[in-house]
Amino acid sequence: MLKHFSYSYLLRQKCRSLTSMVNKRHLSVEDKLSITDEDINTKSTVRQNTPQYESTFESINKVLANKSLSHLLKDANNEQIVDYKESTQEMVRRDQSRLALRPKTAPEDTTVILFPGQGSQFVGMGYNVIESSNVKQMFSIAKQILGYDLLDLCLNGPIETLNKTQYCQPAIYVTSLAAVECLRQRGTGDVEACVATAGFSVGELSALVFAGAMSFEDGLRLVKIRAESMQYASELVPSAMITVFFNADARISFACNAAREWCVRKGIEEKDAICNIANYLFPHCKVIAGHEEAINFLEMNAKDFGIKRSKRLPVSGAFHTKLMEPARKVMAEALRKIHLEVPLIPVHSNFDAKIYKDVVSMRKKLAKQIVSPVHWEQILHIVYDRPKDMKCPKTFECGPGKSLLSTLSMVHAVARRSAHHISV
After folding, report:
1. Whether the Cβ atoms of residue 394 and residue 403 lie closer than 8 Å to each other
2. CA-CA distance, 262 to 275, in Å (whole number)?
3. From CA 256, how far away is CA 19, in angstroms rounded?
């Protein structure tokens, strides 16, 4: 079994000083249990070391109840956006870089490693990293845990199978960590110089394994459970996700509320009439997810809400919304039984963009992440915002696709100049 990757050992040697900055709690006996549920279908190998967002209008619910849909759209067009100058105190409050944990080292001598999420998969992924040290062993272990040949699926497809949630999430997880092995093998010291990491959606589990919070095997088991439960939840209610690009005066929250009301009026149960922001990507761009009818409504009335352009995502579920509640319950139970440790380097949570500081918060936030928006834009601000005369760390996106680097260029162009992609 692959108990410790070489990069985990190197990180432990390089980052011991960072562990003193966090409050590591003692684990209970229950915390040390390995996964034994039938859902996992394999024995666990564990190490033996012991905001809700308000709508645009405060009276939105009353407005929706008392006005017709045509009136709602008219109000959305006529609403005046008040422009005001932020006070110094407000600007300080919004300086998200204060939430980062940064060593007293020249930024240009450090690195940040990012891990992509679902949607970045493609047939042929894994070809560029398969000869790197440990990678063949990683795919061998994946075959044992998953029960199918993941490497063959990555290299040969078909894409229709690879695109399914239960297959693409494990594929992205393994190839992303394989990319880290490829980067480490270069001998440039970039892996050892990492001072912060984050992953988008399922990529957050890749980041936590990289940071030493859990073993590769247990991380893959969690990914398997997560992917299969999300696939199951997506089949219960017809749903979709859409990327929207909008004007500065757009009414996105109002649009989501109107879409939910549209669903209710069409006879859809209120618990299924879901529509809300699922991913915060960069200024004037977000991903909205919800019931199929809600997404159809947004597409038909995009201009009325200030949406310039939209694009459907090739997924079958409304991920990071309440429609994923069945998957959240399954993930919470799995997390309760798996062995976790405080990360050796700062890992930023998708749930609130903050750094994980203890095992308890990891269990809570990783489960909540499935039904909550991904705060990726906020994470990038926390990691990269700094005075103009200060350089940024080198960034590496490890995994399939370059979507995170594209997003970085829209949030922090300076950081993007020193960012690289480790292809798989």
Report:
1. no
2. 10
3. 42
For β-strands 111-115 and 194-199, DSSP reports them as parallel
Q: Model's pTM, two decimal places?
A: 0.78
For residue 100, what pLDDT is reported? 55
pLDDT digits (tens, 9 = 90+) for 17-28: 333 333 333 333
CA atoms within 13 A on the CB side of 81: 11
Contact of 206 with 159, CB cutoff 8 Å: no
Average pLDDT along the chain: 82
Q: Closest Cα partner for 356 from 22, 25, 113, 18? A: 22
Return the active site residues.
201, 320
List pLDDT tens digits, range 188-197.
Answer: 999 999 999 9
pLDDT, tens digit, 9 for 90 and up, residues 384-405? 998 888 899 999 999 999 999 9
Rounded to the nearest angstrom, the gap between the alpha carbon of residue 211 and the centroid of all alpha carbons in its chain is 16
Domains identified in the chain and CATH numbers: 32-40+102-234+322-422 (3.40.366.10), 236-315 (3.30.70.250)
Residue closest to 268 by CA, chosen among 288, 291, 289, 239:
291
pLDDT in tens, 307-316: 999 999 988 7
Q: What's the distance, CA 325 to chain centroid?
A: 17
Calculate the dihedral angle through the C-alpha atoms of 168, 172, 178, 183, rounding to the nearest 10 degrees. Answer: 150
CA pair distance 404, 179, nearest whole angstrom: 15
